[in-house]
Amino acid sequence: MSDLLVTSNAQESTGGNVSVSAPTRLHFGLLAFGNQEGRNFGGVGLMLKKPRIKIKVKASQSFNTIGIYADRLAEFAEMWKDYTKADQLPNCTLKVTKAPPQHVGLGLGTQLGLSTAEALQRFVSHSGFSAMERAIVVNRAARSAVGTYGFEFGGLIVERGRLPNERISPLECRMDFPKQWRIALIRPEGGSGLSGESEIKAFTDIPPVSQRITDQLLDIIQSQLLPGLTGHDFSQVTEAVESYGHLAGSCFEEIQGGPYNGRLLNKRVAWLKQMGARGVGQSSWGPTLFCFFDSKEAAQEFQRNVPDDGSGQKLIVDIVKPDNQGAVIGYG
Fold first, then answer.
1. Is the pLDDT of residue 14 over 70?
2. Which residue range(s) make up the domain with 272?
3. Which residue among 47, 52, 209, 225 has the highest number of C-beta atoms inside a 10 angstrom radius?
4. 134, 8 in Cβ contact below 8 A?
């Protein structure tokens, strides 16, 4: 049974309209990969209020998906049907009403899948899935489970990585992120990071993460990041995020050409640091970079005054809040 926040204008009922509003996420980097016996993947990330993924399900004469990402919704719906052993998909129309671009490092695919599974399950029954089951339904969390737990709980997520006999990494820790802090998202218009077969190949082409590096990453989380969050210590948290991301990214140097994905992103990180940005990092494979501010005013000043980075690319700079809530389900 899910603990997601439910808002309703009418009593929950089967066959009624359902909406799902899910947060996107930043991923600060993996803890390990290539380990034959111990835990693999794992890592830490943060859920964001915006951009959001919003899906609506409305009763109709037959099942169909419309609008942006309609094909992906249909694929996830078939997975839901197979998992639940339903004879057929329910008579409803499934539509994405809001979503960011795909493959920019914000975890769109996972949130689309989880939202689809939850929306259909609540359309036909009185309750949704648990966090782990929801991911299994749509075959997510094979590597990172940050988005899986973030959909359910929001906040900062630390997951341990999974053992060879585990389907999904266990949740290690979940903490609220200070709501007065802001995050700047910086990405080039039209850029994209690795995904699909290219991403799978990348993990086969790079050497395993040494236990020494994994231990260093865990130490940053346990001795710097989490204590800093507990004390709302902005300097400690941003230094920890930046150190963690640089070290985790260095494990991908053979693919990326540095701690960040490609020459331009490595230069852009240095450019942001030169401007005094704090907690600079790359989310997943990029191209989205991020940095933190201790107030809305400081973030807005950065957004107003950010100069051209000399790359020739048009940069999109968005200021967003952390999401400590997770997905929101609506009825009616």
1. no
2. 5-331
3. 47
4. no
